[in-house]
Write a structure and sequence with these properties.
The protein is mainly β. It has 2 domains: 85 residues, Immunoglobulin-like, CATH 2.60.40; 86 residues, Macroglobulin (MG2) domain (Immunoglobulin-like, Sandwich). It is 14% helix and 44% strand. The chain is built from 2 helices and 16 strands. The protein is elongated and about 85 Å long.
């Protein structure tokens, strides 16, 4: 009788053990549950062209940028607090930066202040190629006659196409338009006869004012 009692006790214990094993997740199930955990938020990222014409605008998208972040263009060896161009992002995820008017190697940076000093969060190489421009217009017009003009270049925010007397200084004013707004325009012709110059004048960081293209126009 005692032996039979022991067998019955062992048999009664089996379902409990089976239930305990069934209730515990397997190693594969535990790994699957761990893989379902929400991913950690990624850090900031920059998206922009790495090669542009000198003096042209550079469109930049800064994803997940922290509060107080800035976009900057600097020389690669410049410290964090030194930059050629700085544009605060504020609440915007993107911005347009004027690039240096001199061809060369630069660096696009995402920066912010930390403990009262600027730090570089991200950096990306930026190469600017030599700036070029083209002009199209009639070679001769009558006095006071309208002058249809087409001008294409870096198309920076401060670039302009202007008609001035031949030999005038680069900053001389005259009938003009901004190619960033529209590459074609009609300028008022001078009332005085003579030889004039239609110019594409770039105005960019580092280079300042620079005449990229010139076309002679005779006013008769």
């Amino acid at each position: 009788m005692r032996r039979r009692h022991l067998v019955l006790l062992a048999a009664a214990a089996l379902p409990l053990a089976a239930l305990s094993l069934a209730g515990a997740p397997s190693q594969t199930q535990a790994q699957q549950q761990a893989s379902r955990k929400p991913p950690q938020p990624a850090g900031p990222a920059l998206s922009a062209s790495q090669r542009v014409m000198a003096g042209s605008p550079l469109s930049v998208l800064a994803s997940r940028a922290p509060e107080g972040a800035r976009l900057a263009i600097a020389r690669p060896a410049d410290p964090a607090g030194s930059a050629i161009v700085v544009v605060p992002l504020r609440a915007r995820p993107s911005a347009s930066l004027p690039t240096p008017g001199e061809a060369g190697a630069y660096e696009l940076r995402l920066t912010r202040d930390q403990d009262g000093a600027p730090v570089i969060l991200l950096r990306q190489p930026l190469v600017t190629t030599p700036p070029q421009a083209t002009l199209a217009a009639p070679a001769r017009i009558g006095r006071g006659q309208a002058l249809p003009v087409r001008g294409i270049g870096p198309n920076g925010e401060r670039d302009r196409v202007v008609l001035v007397p031949a030999g005038a200084a680069p900053n001389t004013d005259g009938p003009s338009f901004f190619p960033q707004e529209n590459v074609e325009a009609t300028l008022d012709g001078p009332d005085q006869p003579g030889v004039y110059e239609l110019r594409y004048v770039m105005d960019a960081p580092v280079s300042g004012l620079r005449v990229l293209a010139m076309r002679a126009v005779s006013v008769e």
